[in-house]
Amino acid sequence: MTDAYWETKTLDKMTESEWEGICDGCAKCCLHKFIDDENVEEQTFTDHLAPDENIHYTNIVCSLLNTKTCQCTKYSERTKLVPECVKLTKDNLKDIFFMPPSCSYRRLYEGRGLPSWHPLLNKGKKTKMHQQGMSVRGKTVFDCDVDIDKFEDYIAVWPLEDLD
Ligand code: SF4
Ligand code: SF4
Questions:
Q1: Residue 140 in contact with residue 60, Cβ under 8 Å?
Q2: With a 6 A CB cut-off, is 101 part of the ligand 1 pocket?
Q3: What is the tally of structural domains in the chain?
Protein backbone atom coordinates (compact mmCIF):
# COMPACT_ATOMS: atom_id res chain seq x y z
CA MET A 1 0.00 0.00 0.00
CA THR A 2 2.55 2.58 -1.07
CA ASP A 3 0.56 4.44 -3.69
CA ALA A 4 -1.92 7.14 -2.68
CA TYR A 5 -4.87 4.84 -3.36
CA TRP A 6 -7.20 7.14 -1.38
CA GLU A 7 -6.76 9.73 -4.12
CA THR A 8 -7.72 7.41 -6.96
CA LYS A 9 -10.27 5.01 -5.44
CA THR A 10 -13.63 5.76 -3.91
CA LEU A 11 -14.35 4.22 -0.51
CA ASP A 12 -16.67 1.60 -1.96
CA LYS A 13 -13.95 0.37 -4.35
CA MET A 14 -11.27 -0.11 -1.68
CA THR A 15 -10.04 -3.52 -0.58
CA GLU A 16 -10.48 -4.52 3.05
CA SER A 17 -6.92 -3.53 3.99
CA GLU A 18 -7.14 -0.26 2.06
CA TRP A 19 -10.40 0.49 3.88
CA GLU A 20 -8.88 -0.28 7.28
CA GLY A 21 -5.89 1.94 6.42
CA ILE A 22 -8.15 4.97 6.05
CA CYS A 23 -9.00 4.96 9.76
CA ASP A 24 -6.79 7.59 11.39
CA GLY A 25 -7.21 6.04 14.84
CA CYS A 26 -8.43 9.27 16.45
CA ALA A 27 -11.05 7.37 18.52
CA LYS A 28 -13.53 10.25 18.32
CA CYS A 29 -16.08 7.63 17.25
CA CYS A 30 -15.69 6.07 20.72
CA LEU A 31 -17.08 9.20 22.37
CA HIS A 32 -20.68 9.23 23.56
CA LYS A 33 -22.99 11.36 21.44
CA PHE A 34 -26.50 12.52 22.17
CA ILE A 35 -29.37 13.83 20.11
CA ASP A 36 -31.76 16.28 21.75
CA ASP A 37 -35.36 15.27 21.26
CA GLU A 38 -37.96 16.98 23.42
CA ASN A 39 -40.55 14.35 22.52
CA VAL A 40 -38.54 11.51 24.05
CA GLU A 41 -38.72 11.04 27.79
CA GLU A 42 -36.26 8.21 28.26
CA GLN A 43 -32.79 7.93 26.78
CA THR A 44 -32.54 5.33 24.06
CA PHE A 45 -30.22 4.38 21.20
CA THR A 46 -30.96 5.54 17.68
CA ASP A 47 -29.49 5.34 14.20
CA HIS A 48 -31.73 8.06 12.82
CA LEU A 49 -31.26 11.81 12.76
CA ALA A 50 -34.25 14.03 11.93
CA PRO A 51 -33.57 17.12 9.78
CA ASP A 52 -34.05 19.52 12.72
CA GLU A 53 -31.92 17.52 15.18
CA ASN A 54 -28.28 18.07 16.11
CA ILE A 55 -25.73 15.63 17.47
CA HIS A 56 -23.96 16.73 20.65
CA TYR A 57 -20.56 15.24 21.28
CA THR A 58 -19.26 14.76 24.81
CA ASN A 59 -15.86 14.00 26.28
CA ILE A 60 -17.26 10.77 27.76
CA VAL A 61 -15.50 7.84 26.16
CA CYS A 62 -16.16 4.10 26.09
CA SER A 63 -14.32 2.43 28.94
CA LEU A 64 -12.87 -0.19 26.58
CA LEU A 65 -10.66 2.42 24.97
CA ASN A 66 -6.97 2.73 25.79
CA THR A 67 -6.98 6.51 26.01
CA LYS A 68 -3.22 6.80 25.52
CA THR A 69 -2.88 4.79 22.32
CA CYS A 70 -6.50 5.58 21.32
CA GLN A 71 -7.01 1.91 20.44
CA CYS A 72 -9.84 -0.38 21.46
CA THR A 73 -8.69 -2.90 24.07
CA LYS A 74 -11.27 -5.47 22.88
CA TYR A 75 -11.38 -4.83 19.16
CA SER A 76 -12.41 -8.33 18.06
CA GLU A 77 -15.19 -8.59 20.67
CA ARG A 78 -16.30 -4.95 20.65
CA THR A 79 -19.71 -5.32 19.03
CA LYS A 80 -20.58 -8.16 21.42
CA LEU A 81 -19.37 -6.29 24.52
CA VAL A 82 -20.68 -2.88 23.47
CA PRO A 83 -23.81 -3.34 21.31
CA GLU A 84 -23.96 0.37 20.47
CA CYS A 85 -20.40 0.26 19.07
CA VAL A 86 -21.02 0.89 15.38
CA LYS A 87 -18.34 -0.11 12.92
CA LEU A 88 -18.40 1.97 9.78
CA THR A 89 -18.44 -0.23 6.69
CA LYS A 90 -19.06 0.17 2.98
CA ASP A 91 -22.63 -0.95 3.64
CA ASN A 92 -23.50 1.70 6.21
CA LEU A 93 -21.75 4.69 4.66
CA LYS A 94 -25.12 6.47 4.68
CA ASP A 95 -24.71 6.68 8.48
CA ILE A 96 -21.44 8.59 8.12
CA PHE A 97 -23.04 11.77 9.47
CA PHE A 98 -22.68 10.18 12.92
CA MET A 99 -18.92 10.46 12.52
CA PRO A 100 -17.12 13.68 13.47
CA PRO A 101 -16.17 16.11 10.66
CA SER A 102 -12.50 15.11 10.97
CA CYS A 103 -13.20 11.38 10.57
CA SER A 104 -11.07 10.35 7.61
CA TYR A 105 -13.86 8.24 6.10
CA ARG A 106 -16.20 11.22 6.29
CA ARG A 107 -13.56 13.51 4.79
CA LEU A 108 -13.10 11.20 1.79
CA TYR A 109 -16.85 10.63 1.47
CA GLU A 110 -17.35 14.40 1.32
CA GLY A 111 -14.47 14.87 -1.15
CA ARG A 112 -12.18 16.68 1.30
CA GLY A 113 -9.18 14.32 1.06
CA LEU A 114 -6.99 13.16 3.92
CA PRO A 115 -5.63 15.75 6.38
CA SER A 116 -1.88 16.47 6.63
CA TRP A 117 -1.76 14.82 10.08
CA HIS A 118 -3.12 11.48 8.87
CA PRO A 119 -0.88 8.48 9.67
CA LEU A 120 -0.89 7.44 6.00
CA LEU A 121 0.86 10.73 5.20
CA ASN A 122 3.21 10.45 8.18
CA LYS A 123 4.98 7.10 7.75
CA GLY A 124 2.15 5.29 9.52
CA LYS A 125 2.70 7.23 12.75
CA LYS A 126 -0.04 8.84 14.86
CA THR A 127 2.35 11.33 16.50
CA LYS A 128 1.34 14.33 14.41
CA MET A 129 -2.35 13.59 14.93
CA HIS A 130 -1.89 13.52 18.71
CA GLN A 131 0.37 16.60 18.69
CA GLN A 132 -2.18 18.59 16.74
CA GLY A 133 -4.95 17.61 19.13
CA MET A 134 -6.95 15.67 16.58
CA SER A 135 -7.35 12.52 18.67
CA VAL A 136 -9.12 12.04 22.00
CA ARG A 137 -5.88 11.58 23.92
CA GLY A 138 -5.84 13.50 27.20
CA LYS A 139 -9.34 14.91 26.84
CA THR A 140 -11.76 12.26 28.06
CA VAL A 141 -13.46 10.65 31.04
CA PHE A 142 -14.58 7.02 31.05
CA ASP A 143 -18.30 6.24 30.88
CA CYS A 144 -17.93 3.96 33.90
CA ASP A 145 -16.75 6.95 35.98
CA VAL A 146 -19.62 9.35 35.27
CA ASP A 147 -23.39 9.51 35.61
CA ILE A 148 -24.41 9.21 31.98
CA ASP A 149 -27.77 10.90 32.77
CA LYS A 150 -25.79 14.07 33.42
CA PHE A 151 -24.30 14.01 29.93
CA GLU A 152 -25.06 17.70 29.47
CA ASP A 153 -22.21 18.46 31.89
CA TYR A 154 -19.81 16.78 29.47
CA ILE A 155 -20.83 18.27 26.14
CA ALA A 156 -17.69 19.23 24.22
CA VAL A 157 -17.03 21.07 20.97
CA TRP A 158 -13.45 19.91 20.39
CA PRO A 159 -14.59 16.64 18.74
CA LEU A 160 -16.16 18.78 15.99
CA GLU A 161 -12.91 20.53 15.16
CA ASP A 162 -11.11 19.66 11.96
CA LEU A 163 -7.73 20.62 10.60
CA ASP A 164 -6.48 20.15 7.06
S1 SF4 B 1 -13.59 8.83 13.82
FE2 SF4 B 1 -13.32 7.80 11.86
S3 SF4 B 1 -11.15 7.92 11.41
FE4 SF4 B 1 -11.37 8.42 13.61
S5 SF4 B 1 -11.09 6.42 14.64
FE6 SF4 B 1 -13.28 6.66 14.24
S7 SF4 B 1 -13.67 5.61 12.26
FE8 SF4 B 1 -11.44 5.97 12.46
S1 SF4 C 1 -15.90 -1.03 22.04
FE2 SF4 C 1 -13.90 -0.31 21.36
S3 SF4 C 1 -14.24 0.55 19.29
FE4 SF4 C 1 -16.26 0.34 20.30
S5 SF4 C 1 -16.65 2.34 21.24
FE6 SF4 C 1 -15.67 1.04 22.80
S7 SF4 C 1 -13.46 1.48 22.64
FE8 SF4 C 1 -14.43 2.24 20.77
A1: yes
A2: no
A3: 1
